[in-house]
């Protein structure tokens, strides 16, 4: 670094070497940056994978409830809400299923439901049911209901279902830094909290109708 | 990166040397200064650059520029190469896992997927695929206590469900153990079947496994490999559908009545 010169020129050899070195360093940076940008995907027993599996099942029951409301709801508000929830949550099931494919993980797991959640086994009700899930008897009652009973049962069951869903979302938000999971989980939470308050208002409105 | 300068005694400026050897293809100097510089010094007064600093001739401007442009360009190439060749993304290999289950049957002949209102005859008992009812049997973890029509159950298999069936003489504790694998789990259904040659038979689309006892670990292997994965209709669901038991599929009027009832 102490070279003193008076004829500033580039050395072809030196230039070629520095270009070659720059190529190597650039490749290293390119690979390194992309590895950092796309870190190791979630493992089979990660909270992200557990959430993708369990929330898919949780959503599947919400879709079943919402389809009943969309078809048989007495109040038009209930039919529209049912259609909205069914289509939205079915699409979200598709998104979560694709995560597992992207991560090369099986959609099925030997782990019990909610095993990814701290104290998750304590949150199971009626055997293996995740928070907010309806029993098969409750589902049958909704399937067989008619008239205003459809609206009443649906709103009760879906408020409970959403509350359980938000509880599960809160658990994954503290356990993952996967940007896709965070994005969808936050979106679920915001939407389901909004729908809970809408459904509570609707219960009051329909009780007077 | 280390760029060392040429020996000072040469008094040659702007000689960038990396390592000890000249690059392949480096051309010897043509012309150049009075003294013979090391090989690779580009000669000629083509690019006289005014020395920026009084005391030294190293011209960091072009070097930095080349380095920066080179790093960015190659970084982009590296990024693309990683994106193109990175591992993973192929999804889960459920077929290998399914075919590794001891005693599993995989029907590789074509299984039709068309719809009918008529009762169907199937090559397997219970069936694992083929022509089926327009309506699927509800498979949201439904545990049916009486036989269900094959034509509806096959439609559930098409959607990706695993159907657990058992012979009527299966002990109650084993029936309960099987039901625990089904209840509350969508894409699962269970029912007794008449004339079953083994106590328990598991079905997914084109796959079947018959076992003698509910404690057989291959049951969980079968479910783990094939539930949802064996679907012929990715994204299909189990909600809705027929919930009635019986030995004959719903006829056209009954299907119409089912949808009518659902429309309220």
UniProtKB/TrEMBL annotation, chain A:
Listed InterPro entries: DUF305_CopM-like, Ferritin-like
UniProt superkingdom: Bacteria
Designated name of the protein: DUF305 domain-containing protein
Pfam family, one: DUF305
Coiled coil location: none
Domain DUF305: 49-202
Organism placement in taxonomy: Bacteria, Bacillati, Actinomycetota, Actinomycetes, Micromonosporales
Organism: Catellatospora aurea
């Amino acid at each position: 670094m102490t070279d003193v010169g008076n004829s500033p020129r580039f050395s072809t050899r030196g230039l070629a070497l520095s270009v070659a070195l720059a190529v190597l360093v650039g490749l290293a940076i390119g690979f390194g940056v992309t590895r950092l940008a796309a870190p190791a995907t979630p493992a089979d027993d990660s909270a992200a994978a557990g959430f993708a599996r369990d929330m898919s099942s949780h959503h599947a029951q919400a879709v079943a409830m919402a389809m009943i409301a969309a078809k048989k709801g007495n109040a038009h508000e209930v039919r529209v809400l049912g259609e909205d929830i069914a289509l939205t949550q079915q699409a979200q099931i598709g998104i979560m299923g694709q995560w597992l494919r992207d991560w090369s993980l099986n959609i099925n797991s030997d782990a019990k439901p909610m095993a990814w959640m701290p104290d998750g086994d304590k949150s199971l009700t009626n055997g293996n049911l995740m928070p907010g899930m309806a029993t098969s008897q409750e589902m049958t009652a909704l399937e067989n209901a008619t008239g205003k009973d459809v609206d009443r049962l649906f709103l009760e069951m879906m408020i409970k279902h959403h509350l359980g869903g938000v509880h599960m979302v809160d658990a994954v938000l503290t356990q993952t830094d996967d940007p896709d999971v965070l994005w969808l989980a936050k979106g679920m939470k915001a939407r389901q909290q909004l729908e809970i308050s809408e459904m509570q208002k609707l219960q009051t409105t329909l009780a007077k109708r | 990166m280390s760029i060392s300068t040429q020996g000072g005694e040469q008094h040659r400026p702007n000689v960038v040397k990396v390592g000890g050897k000249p690059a392949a293809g480096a051309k010897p100097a043509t012309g150049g200064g009075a003294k013979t510089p090391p090989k690779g010094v580009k000669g000629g007064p083509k690019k006289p650059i005014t020395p920026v600093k009084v005391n030294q001739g190293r011209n960091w401007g072009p070097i930095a520029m080349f380095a920066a442009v080179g790093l960015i360009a190659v970084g982009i190439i590296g990024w693309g190469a990683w994106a193109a060749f990175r591992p993973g993304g192929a999804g889960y290999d459920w077929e290998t896992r399914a075919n590794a289950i001891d005693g599993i049957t995989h029907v590789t002949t074509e299984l039709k997927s068309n719809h009918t209102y008529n009762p169907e005859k199937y090559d397997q008992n219970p069936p694992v695929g083929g022509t089926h009812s327009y309506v699927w049997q509800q498979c949201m973890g439904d545990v049916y206590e009486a036989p269900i029509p094959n034509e509806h159950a096959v439609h559930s298999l098409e959607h990706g469900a695993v159907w657990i069936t058992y012979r009527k003489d299966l002990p109650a504790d084993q029936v309960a153990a099987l039901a625990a694998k089904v209840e509350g789990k969508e894409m699962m259904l269970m029912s007794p079947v008449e004339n079953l040659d083994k106590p328990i038979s598991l079905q997914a689309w084109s796959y079947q496994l018959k076992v003698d006892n509910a404690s057989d670990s291959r049951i969980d292997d079968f479910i783990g490999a094939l539930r949802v994965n064996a679907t012929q209709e990715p994204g299909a669901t189990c909600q809705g559908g027929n919930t009635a038991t019986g030995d004959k599929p719903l006829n056209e009027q009954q299907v119409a009545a089912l949808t009518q009832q659902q429309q309220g």
